[in-house]
Amino acid sequence: MNIKKATIFAVLLGIAMIGLSGCGRKDEYKAQAKLGQPIVRAIEDYYTQTGSYPTSLDALPQKHTGWTYETYTYQNSTNGAVISYMLRYRFGRGGVEYEPNRWIGGDKGHYVLLDVK
Questions:
Q1: pTM score above 0.85
Q2: Assigned domain for 17 exists
Q3: Which domain holds residue 70?
Q4: 82-91 and 72-79 as β-strands: parallel, antiparallel, unpaired?
Q5: How many domains does the chain have?
Q6: Does the residue 9 lie in any domain?
Q7: Nearest to 30 by CA among 114, 97, 102
Q8: pLDDT tens digits for 19-57?
Q9: Whole-angstrom Cα distance, residue 32 to residue 51?
């Protein structure tokens, strides 16, 4: 009986540790996502003005200052009629990713939605 209790306790502790492992960096993810918001706005402004997303971040007008995008990875994509993009920043084993209308942060398979505007 004691082995069963110990096993159950170990399994529950493992589940709790897995659930909490990604949560400790949420503030770090949100901070990085906020730094990426001006890039998102620049991409959206470009789309509003041209009707298409830029082929690279270098195509964005120089009027958007106050940020750098050397550390961000940008990719636009077309899936049939859907045209979209993704902006990603990696640090350590994790990072943040923007897909239109949402930021996601995480590492090692643990992801959280970030409320960043």
A1: no
A2: no
A3: 24-114
A4: antiparallel
A5: 1
A6: no
A7: 114
A8: 444 456 888 888 888 888 888 888 999 999 999 888 888
A9: 28
